[in-house]
Design brief:
- There is one protein chain.
- The chain is an alpha/beta fold.
- It has 2 domains: 51 residues, no CATH class; 132 residues, Flavocytochrome B2, Chain A, domain 1 (Roll).
- 31% of the residues lie in helices and 14% in strands.
- It is built from 8 helices and 8 strands.
- The strands form 2 sheets. Strands 3, 4, 5, 6, 7 and 8 form a 6-stranded mixed β-sheet that branches.
- Strand 1 and strand 2 form a beta hairpin.
- The radius of gyration is 19 Å and the shape is globular.
- The structure holds protoporphyrin IX containing FE.
- This is Cytochrome b5 heme-binding domain-containing protein.
Length: 194
């Protein structure tokens, strides 16, 4: 990755050192004083600095939990589902089971559909805008549009590395400990087929 706005977790792994069982990081990056307040933080253990952004009011992790367990559970949090029955329909007919398409037409939330929607590279690539942003993590396809403003790492990095792409490698590089499958449960679109 060559974008200087986003520091990689590994970029100063060599520079960090352990003194008296506490993590110490170079002064230039030590503004969080991790030895006092953040020593248990997994991000610091993974690389030693934060790339977090300030989230808008009403976009904390608790707010996300509230959204996913209310509106999300009821309707799912995938945007532009209508498009699947219009623009994408011909493509879906050749790659999916009829039962899947019937459930979509009956407005069953995508995260509940069985067998799940099969998404190939072409379909993934078509959903690559901010309003309709799909990405793959570990073989599962998620719609990130509703999650953008809740992401502690910011919107830009998601748009750049996730939109219409397989983001597994980048996800694991930044925070493989994050329970994406739980966080994005109701944003589930389908399974990735290569
Ligand atoms: C697509 C699903 C993703 C989810 C659900 C997700 C979730 C999260 C969560 C929960 C955190 C907070 C971690 C903490 O408190 O230590 C976080 C931080 C962050 N994420 Fe993601 N993330 C996703 C994808 C990505 C991707 C693909 C990238 C990079 C290309 C990325 C970059 C970051 C960065 C830079 C931070 C801030 C890390 C820090 O400095 O503490 N995220 N993300």
């Amino acid at each position: 990755m060559d974008d200087s706005r986003f520091k990689r977790p590994s970029s100063f792994r060599e520079e960090r050192s352990l003194k008296n069982n506490t993590l110490s990081v170079p002064n230039s990056n030590n503004w969080l004083n991790p030895s006092k307040s953040q020593a248990g933080c997994s991000t610091l253990r993974a690389g030693g600095y934060r790339n977090k952004v300030a989230l808008k009011p009403g976009h904390s992790s608790l707010d996300w939990h509230e959204l996913t367990t209310t509106k999300g559970k009821k309707f799912g949090l995938v945007t532009n589902v209508d498009r699947l029955l219009t623009l994408d329909l011909d493509h879906l007919k050749s790659t999916n089971y009829p039962q899947t398409l019937v459930q979509i037409s009956r407005k069953v939330p995508l995260y509940l559909i069985r067998p799940p929607l099969r998404v190939d590279k072409e379909l993934l690539r078509r959903h690559n805008t901010k309003d309709d942003c799909w990405c793959v993590i570990q073989g599962k396809v998620y719609c990130l549009t509703n999650y953008f403003d809740f992401h502690p790492g910011g919107v830009d990095i998601l748009l750049r590395y996730c939109a219409g792409k397989d983001a597994t490698k980048m996800f694991n590089e930044y925070h493989r400990w994050v329970s994406y499958d739980k966080l994005l449960e109701t944003c589930f679109v389908g399974v990735y087929v290569e």
